[in-house]
Design a protein that fits this description.
- The chain is mainly β.
- Helix content is about 5%, strand content about 35%.
- Strands 1, 2, 3, 4, 5, 6, 7, 8, 9, 10, 11, 12 and 13 form a 13-stranded antiparallel sheet that branches.
- Strand 5 and strand 6 form a beta hairpin.
- The radius of gyration is 22 Å and the shape is elongated.
């Protein structure tokens, strides 16, 4: 008498499985004195890696008035091709474990965005190019002050309609993390040698258990079908 409700099937995807990766790319000036925001935001990347155990979406100020020192952008790619073209994605959460947060710029958030690196499995400095990064939130921004940093608990982004629409059912889904000031191309109020970042466990994490970033997708598989061949005779019933 209870009936049945079908909530959908669930698949969990991790960067590094299949045609995917997680990585960082950044621009860091030669000295902590820094450079103007437009140069840091729009200049060429100076560093990148896919082998670190943690990632840091980050904005740092320099020590000279109105100069800026570092921006880090984080790639999170998931091979979601097993969903299949006929499936319907109904909900999804992108989840990560954090070891620490640092926020001397108050009120900053980490935004989940889209990304478009040159390769799905190899990061290069040139992937810092701001034209390869989205600015639109794929889920509600997460205040740095709200992130759990016990190295165990998953922090979750519940994808909005835009984010759900950017999940590929036949290829690689390409997301990323940016500090909101970077995503908005709008620096915080400057103060000398300040920073805002979250430490995010990577797919290379050495934390106990499986603490890799993950994309958990609830979906409805395509309806099953079968082709029937042969000859049907008189009097047959369906």
């Amino acid at each position: 008498g209870l009936g049945e409700f079908e909530y959908g099937s669930v698949l969990t995807f991790y960067p590094g499985d299949g045609d995917s990766m997680d990585a960082f790319t950044s621009r860091q000036t030669g000295t902590v004195a820094g450079e103007v925001w437009s140069s840091l935001y729009g200049g060429a990347g100076t560093n990148s890696s896919s082998s670190a155990t943690s990632w840091y979406p980050d904005v740092n100020s320099g020590t000279v008035t109105d100069q800026w020192y570092i921006i880090y952008r984080i790639l999170l790619l998931f091979d979601t091709s097993t969903l299949g073209s006929g499936s319907t994605v109904t909900s999804a959460d992108m989840e990560f474990v954090s070891q620490s947060v640092y926020e001397s710029f108050t009120g900053r958030s980490v935004r989940m965005v889209t990304s478009n690196p040159d390769s799905n499995t190899a990061i290069v400095d040139a992937d810092y190019d701001y034209t390869l990064w989205g600015s639109v939130a794929q889920a509600p921004d997460k205040l740095l002050s709200s992130i759990t940093t016990d190295s165990s608990t998953y922090n979750s982004y519940a994808l909005n309609a835009t984010g759900l629409g950017n999940i590929s059912k036949t290829a690689t889904t390409k997301f990323g993390l940016r500090i909101d000031s970077d995503a908005n191309n709008s620096p915080p109020t400057w103060a000398s040698d300040k920073a805002a970042y979250a430490q995010v466990a990577s797919s290379n994490t050495t934390l106990p258990g499986d603490k890799r970033p993950r994309l958990v997708v609830t979906y409805t598989p395509p309806p099953a079908s079968a082709a029937i061949t042969g000859t049907i005779g008189d009097g047959a019933t369906e």
